[in-house]
Amino acid sequence: MAMGRIAILIDPDKQGPSLSERVAKLSALGLSPDLILLGGSTGVLDSETVFDQARALGLPVWLFPGNEYQLSPQAENLLLPVLISGRNPQLLIGKHVEAARKIRTLGIPVTPMGYILIDGGNIPSVQKVSETEPLSPTDVETIVSTAIAGELLGQQAIYLEAGSGALYPVPTKVIAAVRKEINIPLIVGGGLRSQQTINDALTAGADIVVIGTALEH
Ligand code: 1GP
Questions:
Q1: pLDDT digit string, tens, across residues 96-151
Q2: Is 6 in the pocket of ligand 1 (CB under 6 A)?
């Protein structure tokens, strides 16, 4: 299997199986998790259960917040997304200003992350909530240029997102093209459901693949 890390995404807005049940589902695909991502387009983090469950399994939890109500000082890291594929000023700087002091008081490491939404064949909640248009997966040039711009602007990771529940994951061709041009970690998620698609994303150059929906049902 290709090198890379597997992240289980837990959406605070959705009821779902326990973390150990998700780990068992993942293991049925022949995979084991390296970390937990906690966050979603909407919703509020109203329970600390995930942290307890993750700790019991020895897994770090990284926040991947869709809003300032999904923050917790208990996490090991905060991926601070900047929606660089879109042109909504609120998601480029506005929300960050609103949450800045709260984030600082958490006292946990922050990784600024260029977040690039790519059409996955349906309309995911991130598209509705962000009111931005995804990039076309065939427009590799724009996707790569967006990732490079993110790196030049100081982002410390790039997330290629097909959207939760995407019909089609980010094509391996896109992952490979971005990987070739950036020198920061590459995270890929959205629509990854099978061992094959997960391994393909890792082989194409993803450092971390994110699996949410496939382990929720
Ligand atoms: C969403 O990329 C993640 O941010 C996960 O997507 O739910 O389709 O696995 P899925």
A1: 999 999 999 999 999 999 999 999 999 999 999 999 999 999 999 999 999 999 99
A2: no
Q: Which residue among 194, 213, 215, 217 has the greatest number of ligand 1 atoms within 8 angstroms of its CB, and so is best to mutate?
A: 213
Q: What is the pTM of this model?
A: 0.97
Rounded distance between C-alpha atoms, residue 180 and residue 144, angstroms: 9
What is the pLDDT at residue 14? Answer: 86
- Structure tokens belonging to residue 56: 């019991």
Verify whether ligand 1 is closer than 6 Å to residue 120 (CB atom). Answer: no
In angstroms, rounded to a whole number, what is the distance separating the alpha carbons of residues 179 and 188?
11
Q: What percent of the chain has pLDDT over 90?
A: 92
Residues 6+ apart with CB under 8 A from 185: 156, 157, 158, 207, 208
Question: How deeply is 164 buried, as exposed, middle or buried, from its count of CB atoms within 10 A (0-12, 13-18, 19+)?
Answer: buried
- pLDDT exceeds 60 at position 3: no
